[in-house]
Amino acid sequence: MDNAQTAFIVDDDRDFLNTACRWLESVNIPVKAFDSAVEFLGEFQPNDSGCLLLDIVMPKMNGLELLEELNRRQWILPTIAMTAHKKISYAVQAMKLGAVDFVEKPFTSKKAFVELVTRAMQTANYARKVRVEMVQFGEKLLLLTPREQDVLKLVVDGLSSNEIAEIFGNTTSTVSYQRASIMAKLSVESVAELVRVTLRYTVATELDPTLAASSAFRLDRKSIVKKPRELLRKTEPFKRAAAMVKKNRKRNSG
Fold it and tell me: Is residue 235's pLDDT more than 60?
């Protein structure tokens, strides 16, 4: 397990906090305990890695309200919701707010408790790995020129070099050169990999906008990348052909 990860526990039950800390520390899992959601928010840093064990029923700010606040701040932390109150509605609400698991207290088995935390840690480790990869990809996107970014968007949308050349009024060889430059700067070896990684980055930044803070690149699949036919209708060859058709129709009707 990654030693940099910490199990954060938020619970107003002091006895549970003491037992949970003792169990985790006995297997060398770093742990930080808080007896209120407010105290946790005051000390947690967005770059902290690990998992959160969160009691749902607490005074002042309950666990569901804390989950809502974590979502508002866009903090990514795999959360295990806990409660001694057997209400299905708590579980449903917690899962809807992003909790990865929901368990009932009290825990009677140290082994089961440690395994639960370990699974959450593994989820956190994978999420952190993906985040690092996406941040690095965003930094590579900064190396692209504005035109290369436009070409990338069209490549992802499925346009060929010939179609992209018509849209920008370039030669096919120019677009092929731009595409090769894009692939070199983004460290990908095929168009398929280029599309896959770019779409993965797009989805990641939609889920966590802070990932895109260092990059101006935006792949708006609804507006920025328009349908190929709509784009091609704006090219000069298409306009000339349309004008010729219109002229012929007018001549024939006359």
Answer: no
Answer yes or no: are the C-beta atoms of 54 and 75 closer than 8 Å: no
Res. 135 pLDDT band, cuts 50 70 90:
confident
Q: Is the pTM of this model over 0.70?
A: no
Q: What residues does CATH 3.40.50.2300 cover in the chain?
A: 6-130
Residue 117 and residue 113: Cα distance in Å, rounded?
6
> For residue 15, is it left (φ>0), alpha (ψ between -120 and 50) or beta?
alpha
* Exposed/middle/buried for residue 106 (C-beta within 10 Å: 0-12, 13-18, 19+): exposed
What is the assigned CATH class of domain 142-231? mainly alpha
User: What confidence score (pLDDT) does residue 226 get?
Assistant: 45
As given in the structure block, the two tokens for residue 142 are: 């900064």
Give the pLDDT confidence of 85-97 residue by residue, as tens digits. 766 677 778 877 8
CA distance 139 to 153: 17
Q: What are the start and end residues of each CATH 1.10.10.10 domain in the chain?
A: 142-231
CATH class given for the domain over 6-130? alpha beta
Query: Given CA atoms 18, 119, 91, 110 in this order, what sign does their dihedral have?
Result: negative
